[in-house]
Amino acid sequence: xxxxxxxxxxxxxxxxxxxxxxxxxxxxxxxxxxxxxxxxxxxxxxxxxxxxxxxxxxxxxxxxxxxxxxxxxxxxxxxxxxxxxxxxxxxxxxxxxxxxxxxxxxxxxxxxxxxxxxxxxxxxxxxxxxxxxxxxxxxxxxxxxxxxxxxxxxxxxxxxxxxxxxxxxxxxxxxxxxxxxxxxxxxxxxxxxxxxxxxxxxxxxxxxxxxxxxxxxxxxxxxxxxxxxxxxxxxxxxxxxxxxxxxxxxxxxxxxxxxxxxxxxxxxxxxxxxxxxxxxxxxxxxxxxxxxxxxxxxxxxxxxxxxxxxxxxxxx
Length: 316
Hints:
Layout: H1 4-32, H2 40-52, H3 55-63, H4 74-86, H5 93-109, H6 113-126, H7 129-135, H8 145-155, H9 158-169, H10 173-186, H11 209-219, H12 223-234, H13 240-254, H14 259-264, H15 271-284, H16 287-299, H17 302-312
């Protein structure tokens, strides 16, 4: 027979757990309200505090993502993207693994393709071999194929390369071409790349050295020069898989100041790059930029007008 004393102790433990959970949730909400920070240091402090809450908290943020135009998750997106940059600094290996574990758990539970794509974009910046098993099946998921390939390419390890090779066997022609291009970029020497593995449309194209330079400059804190290189690269013809990576870097550096760059892509790049630009733009909108996007919409081609209209829906 269970004694009253035991019941009271058990109830006390349950109440304490509930209060602790409530306090943790309140702390997380308080941290989200501090984003975006007034400066990089302020944002970094918030990101550090969220990572300290653990992988479950990060997975919880992933669960709060909603497709663009269906709700306001700007603070969550800002937090997740800010952490991607924060945990890739030197000496942050443990924080990075916590972050990646949270993203992987969140990816498994997220049903929306656009939200999955956003999580995969963060794994492009911070992903490690820990994430490969979760990413690999998504290479042949039509809703997030490109993002999954780019995430594995960015991880760039033999484990990631093997995952791409395995996915290639069951892929359609278009996906095989993208995988071939990705494997060509990941190869450590020309001997590892067969002629058939490089799609003809991107023959001879590799990750631009200037993009690598920009990424390294950004990590070193030389953001002005890094941003300038990104802008110059986006004025040239680059494959979608590279264009999107350049966009991600440009936005991570400049935030809202990158809106003119995003607007400039509406008439000069294909649908994949436009969608990536619009995804970023939706998170950076304010009254002034909305008016500018409306002016661009009026002058754009019909299909681009529709894409911009979808991005602006519910934001006015």
